[in-house]
Design a protein that fits this description.
5-stranded mixed β-sheet; single chain
C-alpha cells in the first residue's frame, strides 16, 4: 500500500481572496472574483498582448550598448573553440546558449533575437503560473498586463542582453520554489524522499540563476535567510546542499576543461574600482564608505528616475533623480513586505526577500556611471506586486472602498502610462522595422553609427583574413563584420595626464605587440540625440600624437561616406605601416 503524503496537488489553489466576514465585497474583491471566473480568456489575452507588442517593438538591429554584441561574439567563440574559451566578463551561461544556437545556424541576428522574444514570453507565462492563487488576481493581472505591454521589457525582449533569459529562469525558480513551500506547508514531518525532486529543481535553478547573472549568487543567501527567519534550520541546510549538488560538479568539470578560470574574477576587479575605466591601483580602489554612497546614490537613481521612466511617467532624456520618489517606493515596498509577513503569505514574503537581496546587492556593487534601466527593470514585477499587496490588504482590513478605488485607479494609471508609451514607440518603430525586414539593416541608426557599422562590414569584405582591425566597439564590428575578429580599444593607451593624449612611443609598441594592422576612426556621438561635434574621442586621442610623431605610418585607405559625398559624421579606416 502506498504511503499517503501531505503534499497538495499542483493544480490545487493555495490561497483565495475571501471577502471579510459580514461585509459586502469591496471593489477589488469583486474584481478578483471576476478575474477568477474568467481566468482562461484573461490569461490568453495577457499572452497575446505580450506577443503583439513583441512584434510592434521588435528591433532587428544590435544596440549601441555593446554588451549584447559582446554576448554574440562570446557565443561565437564558444561555438568555434568550446574547449579553449571561457567567458569571464559576466555570467557565462547566456554566451554558452548563444554558442549552441550559432553552432547550428551561424550568426543570424534575427533568429538570435527571436530566442529572446521566446524567453520574454515564457517569463511572463511562468510569473503568472508562479503567483496565480498566491497574489489576488485583481493585483496579479494588472501588474502582468503592465509588463506585457511595457516598452522597456519589450525592448530587451528583442535584444541579445541577458534580461529576457534571466527573467525566464527567475520565473521558473519562483514556480518550483513555491511548489516546494506547498510541499512543506502541511507538515514539518514530510520526509525528504517525498519531495526530493522539488528540492533538486530548486537547487538546480538557484545554481542556474548564478550562471545567468553574477549578482544572482545572493539568491542562495536569500533562501537560507528566509528559512532561518522561519526557524526551519533543516531547510536552510537543504537549500545549501541542493545548490552545492550542482555547483560542485560544475566547478570540477570547469577546472578539468577550462582550468583555473573564475566567473567573477574580471568583473569583480572592475566593480572594486572607483572609476571602472581606469586601471587597478590603490588610488582607484573603492573604500567602505564608497560602497555605502553607491547604495544611496543608486537607490535614488534607480528607484526614482529609472523607475518612473520604465513605467512611462518620465521622459527618457531626463537626468534628474527625485529622492522623495525613491523614499516613497522603498517605504511602500517595506509596508507590503511587513504585510506579507503578518498575513503569513510565505510566497510573497520570500519574493520580497529575494528582490531585496538582488536589488540591494546591485545598488551596492555597481558604479553609478553605469546607469542603465535594465538593472532595476528586472525587479519591477515583484516591486509592484508587493506594493499593491500591502495597499490592498490595509484597505481590506479597514474596509475602505475609497482606498480600493484609489488602488484600482493607480493600477490603471500605471498600465495606461506603459501602454501609451509603447504605442508612441510603436509608431516610431514600425516604419524602421519594415525597412530592416526588407533588407536595409542599417536603417534606424543615426549617421555616426551607420557609417561605423558599414565600415566594419567593409573591413570583413575587403581586407585579408590576416588583417587585425582595432575598433572602439569591437563586438559591434564583429557582428556586422560577419564574424571577423576585431581588436577592442576601450580606453586611451598610456594616457598622459597633462594632455589627455597617448604616449606615441607606447602606442607604437602596443600596435606591434598586438599585431594590429588597421584602425577604425569613427565619429560616434557622446549624446545619441545630438550631432553637435561632441564625440567619443578615445581613438582620436591615441592616433593624433602617434601621427604627429610618426608621419606616414597611418595611411587612409577607405572612408564612409566617400570623399565625393557630404561628410556627415564620417568614419575612416587607416592602415598602420609598422
Amino acid at each position: 500500500m502506498k504511503k499517503q503524503t501531505n503534499i497538495p496537488p499542483a493544480s490545487k489553489p493555495v490561497s483565495k481572496t475571501k471577502p471579510l466576514s459580514n461585509s459586502k465585497p469591496l471593489l477589488l474583491d469583486r474584481l478578483d472574483n471576476w478575474f477568477n471566473l474568467h481566468e482562461k480568456p484573461v490569461r490568453n489575452s495577457l499572452l497575446a498582448a505580450c506577443l503583439l507588442f513583441s512584434f510592434f517593438l521588435f528591433n532587428t538591429r544590435i544596440s549601441e550598448g555593446n554588451d549584447d554584441s559582446l554576448y554574440i561574439e562570446s557565443g561565437y567563440n564558444y561555438a568555434s573553440n568550446f574547449l579553449h574559451y571561457y567567458y569571464t566578463a559576466n555570467a557565462p551561461f547566456y554566451p554558452m546558449f548563444l554558442g549552441l544556437i550559432i553552432s547550428i545556424i551561424g550568426i543570424k541576428l534575427f533568429w538570435l533575437k527571436i530566442t529572446s522574444v521566446l524567453f520574454n514570453f515564457l517569463a511572463l507565462l511562468f510569473f503568472y503560473k508562479s503567483f496565480r492563487n498566491r497574489l489576488p488576481s485583481a493585483l496579479l493581472f494588472p501588474v502582468l498586463f503592465t509588463i506585457a505591454v511595457n516598452s522597456y521589457f519589450q525592448y530587451f525582449a528583442s535584444q541579445t542582453y541577458t534580461e529576457a533569459i534571466f527573467l525566464f529562469v527567475e520565473s521558473l525558480f519562483f514556480f518550483y520554489f513555491f511548489k516546494l513551500l506547498d510541499s512543506l506547508k502541511e507538515s514539518e514531518s514530510v520526509p525528504l524522499k517525498s519531495n526530493y525532486k522539488i528540492w533538486l529543481a530548486v537547487g538546480f535553478l538557484s545554481f542556474f540563476l548564478t550562471m545567468t547573472r553574477n549578482v544572482a549568487a545572493v539568491v542562495l543567501l536569500a533562501m537560507i535567510f528566509y528559512f532561518l527567519l522561519q526557524k526551519k534550520f533543516k531547510y536552510a541546510l537543504f537549500s545549501l546542499s541542493a545548490y552545492l549538488l550542482f555547483k560542485i560538479p560544475f566547478e570540477i568539470i570547469k577546472s578539468l576543461i577550462w582550468k583555473n578560470v573564475s566567473q567573477y574574477g574580471s568583473q569583480s576587479n572592475i566593480l572594486l574600482r572607483i572609476d571602472p575605466y581606469k586601471g587597478d591601483g590603490p588610488e582607484n580602489t573603492e573604500h567602505a564608505m564608497g560602497f555605502v554612497n553607491r547604495f544611496f546614490d543608486n537607490s535614488s537613481m534607480y528607484l526614482s528616475r529609472r523607475f518612473l521612466q520604465i513605467l512611462g511617467f518620465m521622459s527618457e532624456k531626463t537626468l534628474e533623480n527625485i529622492g522623495p520618489v525613491a523614499v516613497l517606493v522603498i517605504l511602500l515596498f517595506a509596508f507590503g513586505l511587513i504585510y506579507t509577513y503578518r498575513l503569513k503569505n510565505n510566497y510573497l514574503f520570500y519574493a520580497s526577500i529575494h528582490t531585496l537581496f538582488l536589488a540591494g546587492t546591485t545598488f551596492i556593487v555597481l558604479q553609478q556611471r553605469w546607469d542603465q534601466p535594465r538593472f532595476v527593470m528586472i525587479h519591477i514585477p515583484i516591486i509592484l506586486m508587493i506594493i499593491f499587496y500591502g495597499l490592498y490588504q490595509i484597505t481590506r482590513i479597514r474596509k475602505s472602498g475609497f482606498g480600493q478605488n484609489l488602488i484600482l485607479c493607480l493600477m490603471i494609471l500605471i498600465f495606461s502610462s506603459s501602454l501609451l508609451s509603447s504605442l508612441g514607440k510603436t509608431a516610431d518603430n514600425l516604419p524602421i522595422l519594415s525597412k530592416n525586414l526588407r533588407g536595409d539593416k542599417f536603417y534606424g541608426y543615426t549617421p555616426d553609427w551607420r557609417n561605423f557599422l558599414q565600415m566594419s562590414e567593409w573591413c570583413a569584405g575587403n581586407l585579408p583574413d590576416s588583417a587585425l582591425v582595432a575598433s572602439r566597439k569591437a563586438p559591434m564590428s564583429f557582428v556586422y563584420g560577419k564574424g571577423k575578429k576585431f581588436f577592442p580599444i576601450y580606453t586611451v593607451i598610456a594616457v598622459d595626464t597633462a594632455t589627455g593624449y597617448s604616449n606615441p612611443d607606447t602606442v607604437l609598441s602596443y600596435f606591434r605587440r598586438n599585431k594590429i594592422t588597421h584602425v577604425i576612426l569613427a565619429n560616434l556621438r557622446r549624446d545619441p540625440a545630438k550631432a553637435d561635434g561632441n564625440i567619443v574621442n578615445t581613438i582620436h586621442r591615441i592616433l593624433i600624437p602617434f601621427d604627429k610623431k610618426f608621419p606616414g605610418k597611418l595611411e587612409l585607405i577607405h572612408q564612409i561616406p566617400p570623399p565625393e559625398e557630404s561628410q556627415i559624421e564620417p568614419c575612416f579606416l587607416y592602415k598602420i605601416n609598422l
